[in-house]
Amino acid sequence: MKCRLSIFFLSICLNAFPQAQTCPVNINFGTGDLTHWYAYTGNNMQGSGPNALRNNYDSIYNAPGGTIGARAINEYSLGNVRGIQVITTSYQDIFGGFPTIPTINGYSYKYTILLGSTAITRGTSSAGGGGYVRGVSYSILVPPGPATEPYTMTYAYAMVLENGTHVSNEQPVITATLKTPAGIIDCASPSYLLPTFNNVVEGGRGATLDSATAKKNGFKVSSTPTPNESFGFAGQPQGNLLDVWTKGWTEVTFDLSAYRGQKVSLTFEADNCVPGGHFAYAYIAIRNSCAGLQISGDSLACYNTGLIYSVPALAGATYSWNIPDSWKLLSTDTGNIIHVKSATNGGFITVREKNGCADLTDTIQIKTQPSPVGGDLEGSTAVCTGINNSHLILFNYSGLIQNWISSTDSINWTIIPNLTETYLAENLTATTYYKAVVGKGSVCPPDSSSPAIIRVDQKSIGGEIDPPLSTLCAGQIAGETLLLFGNTGSVQTWQYSTNGSDWSEINPIVTSNQYTVKGITETTLFRLIDKNGVCPADTSSLAQILFNSVPFPNATANPVDTTICFGTPATLNTNIFTGTSYSWSPSSAGNGNISGTPSRFSDTVLPDSTTSYVLKVVNEGCPNALYDTLLVQVLPKVIVDAGNDTSLVTGEPIQFHATSSDAGPDLFSWLPGTELSNPSIPDPTAIYNDEDYKIRYTIKATTPFGCSGEGFITVKIFKTKPDIFVPNAFTPDQASNPIFRPIPVGVTSLDYFRIYNRLGQLVYSTTAIGSGWNGLLHGVPQASGAYVWMVKGTDYIGSTIVKSGTMVLIR
Questions:
Q1: d(Cα 782, Cα 732) in Å, to the nearest integer?
Q2: In terms of domains, do 711 and 727 share one?
Q3: In angstroms, how far is CA 215 from the centroid of its own chain?
Q4: Range of the domain at 435
Q5: Which CATH number do you get for residue 797?
Q6: Cis bond upstream, residue 508 (ω within 30)
C-alpha cells in the first residue's frame, strides 16, 4: 500500500507556450484560475504515476472539462471536495499555521494553488480503496537565445503529510519533476515524504517513523490532530491522533537556459496512499520573474543599518557572496540568505549559486545615505496636576520629523501628529514621557530623540490629625502624640497657636508624620504644613489639646518584671506619690482608694501562667490615668514521674528511675530512704528483707531556679517466692474489679497472658505487665460464664513461671 504526495515536472503532449525573457503566461496563476495549465485527478489503487486511474483536464478546453477559466477541480469521484484549487486570499493553514500565500526572501507571492485535501478512502485495493492523486502541469517552450543567458523559474512549496506508518516508498510524498526532451532532470526534481525505518513488510502498517530525519528535512509534527479517526490493526478505533506533519514555505530555483528553443514540462502532483487511509496536500506558488537570478533586498541603505539580502534556493547548491569592503557580515555567507551591517560607503553585492542544474550569478548596486538622527528633546520639567503647560523643543536632529510620541509608562506609546520642532504639553494629570520621531524616506528606519519627561505632581493634601481633641494635665511627662494620616506630599513643618490666629513653627522644625506634645501650660492648637512636589502647600486639620491644671498621677511599680515557680505567689509593689486611687488589671491583683500620699501598696497574685499586670493610677480632676505594666513570668509546673506502682518479693532487687519535666539538671530526693542505695539520685536501687511489707516513696525534684515538684510510687513486698496471681472472677460492667489482669510478683517480664472462651477462641492476649481484659471482643461485650486463662512469665533470677486456670465473667 502506498501513501504519496508528489510535485512532478512531467512531459505531456500539450500546446507549449513560447516566451521571451518574461515568464510563461499565467505560470503564477495570476489570472486566478488554471488557464494554460494541464490538470488531472485520480485514484492509485492500480498504482501511482501513469498507471493511476485518472480524469484529465486539458489546457485547450474550457472548464469544467478543461482548465481554461477553472478555479477548482474536485477530487476523483468526490463531487463536493476540492482536489485542486487556486487561492487568491491568504489564510493560515490549520495544521502548519503558515500563510497559504507567502512572502519569502522579500518577494510577495500573490497566488497559490492547493493540491489535495484531507479526504481519504478506507479498504484494500480489492475492496475499492486507493488514495487520491492530483496534479497540474505546464508545457513551456523555452525562448531561443544563447545558453549563457539564464532563463530561470522559481517556485515555493509548503506541505502537510499524515504519517501512514508504511515503508518509506509507500508514505505520503511530494515530488517535483522537470522533464526535457533528454529526460527527467533529477537535480530539479526533488521528492518529499516522511521517512520510516522500513521495519514492516511492504503493503503493511506499523513502520516506525524516522522522526530525526523528518525534522532534519524541515518537518515538524502538528499540534492539531488528524480529522480522520484512526484504527488499530484489529480494527479497533484509536481516535484522532497527532499524526500530521508539516513543512513550511521553501523556495526552489532552476535554470532552463540549457534548453533554449526546446519544450520542457513542469508538473506538481500530490498523492494519498494506495489504500487511501492517510492524506497529503501541498501549496505551490510560482514567481512571475524568469530573467535569471535576482537578489532581493534594498538597493538604498542607511549608514550602519542591519540589512538582509537573499536569493531563491537551489536544491543542493553552494553559495558565494561578496559585500562591500567596509560592510560587516553578520551571518554565514554559505546560504541563500545573508545578514549584513552597512557602512558609510555603498558598493556592490554579488552572489553565485551553483548545483548540477544551474550556475547563476547576480549583482546589485547599493547606494548609502546618512541615517536619520532623532536629536535632543529639551523641556523636561515638573508641573502640578490640572491646569499646566510645558514647552518642548527638538534640537540637533537630522531628517524629517514624522511625528511625536507620548507615554505614561515609557512602554506603550501614543502617536502625536505633530511635524514641527516644538510641542506644547498641556493640562497633564500623570507623569508623561515625550519623544520626537525623525525619518528619511521609507528606506532608513526612523530614529527617536532623547526623551523629555514632564513629571506631574498630585495636589498637596494636608491630611487629618488624630486625635483632634485631647487633654494634658499639669506635669504629664508622657505627653500626647499627634498622628497625621490621609495626606499627599511631605510634612514641611508643624505649627502651634494659643489663639487660633497667630501661628508659630515648632523649633527645631519637625518633618515627620507624628509629633508628641509635652509641657504645655495653656490650651493650644496644632497643625502642619504639607507640600507635594511643585504643587502649592496645604494645611492639615487642627488638633486641640486642652490644658488641665490638676496634676497628672505620679507613681512607680516594682519589680519591673519577675519570674516565679508554678503555684507560688508574686508580690506587686506600688508607690503612689500623686493620685487618689489605683487598680490592677486583672482586677484580682488588687485596687483601692488612696487616703494620702505618698502611699505604698503590696498586692499578692498567684497566676497559673505568664501574665501581664497593668497598673492604673487616677488623680481625681485629671481625666488622664497613668498606666504601667509589670510582667510576671510563670515557669512551667514541675512534673515528676517515678514510674508505676510495683510488687516485689523479698530479696528481689529493683532499679528505680524518676524523671522530671524540667530540662534540668534537677536535684532529686526520696522520702523515706528505706532500703535505697542513694536517696539523692533519680535512679537508686533497693533490695527488701522480711521486715518490709509496703513502702510509699515521695520523690521531689528541684530545678536550678528553685522550683520543685513531687511524684509517688508504692512498692509492695511479698514474703513468698516469685509468682503470678490471677483472680477467679471479674465484673466488667461494675465500678469495682472491671479489668481481668494477672498480678505478677517478682516477675520481670510477661511472655504471654491469654484468655479463651468455651469454644477455644482466643478473646484476649497481652505481654504487658499491668494490662488486662475488659470483657470485649472486637468491641462486642462477651457473654457471662467461664473462661480459660494461661500465663507465662520470667522472674528476676531468670526462672520461668507457667500457670493456667479458669475464671468467671459476671455481668
A1: 10
A2: no
A3: 29
A4: 376-457
A5: 2.60.40.1220
A6: yes
